[in-house]
Amino acid sequence: MRLATRGNGTPDGELVVVSADGARCLSPGEQCLNLLAAIERWRDAEPVLRTLSERLERGEGELLDAAALRAPLPRTWQWLDGSAFQTHADLMQVAFGHEPLPTDKPLMYQGLSDRFYGPRDDVPFRSESDDIDFEGEFAVIVDAVPMGTRAADAFDHIELVVQINDWSLRALAVPEMNTGFGWIQAKPACSMAPFASTPDELGDAWRDGRVCLDLLIDWNGERFGNANGCEMGFGFHELIAHAAATRDLAAGTIVGSGTVANADYARVGSSCIAERRAIEIIAAGEAKTAFMRFGDTVRMEARSAGGPAPFGMISQAVIEHTS
Amino acid sequence: MRLATRGNGTPDGELVVVSADGARCLSPGEQCLNLLAAIERWRDAEPVLRTLSERLERGEGELLDAAALRAPLPRTWQWLDGSAFQTHADLMQVAFGHEPLPTDKPLMYQGLSDRFYGPRDDVPFRSESDDIDFEGEFAVIVDAVPMGTRAADAFDHIELVVQINDWSLRALAVPEMNTGFGWIQAKPACSMAPFASTPDELGDAWRDGRVCLDLLIDWNGERFGNANGCEMGFGFHELIAHAAATRDLAAGTIVGSGTVANADYARVGSSCIAERRAIEIIAAGEAKTAFMRFGDTVRMEARSAGGPAPFGMISQAVIEHTS
Question: What is the pTM of this model?
Answer without folding.
Answer: 0.98
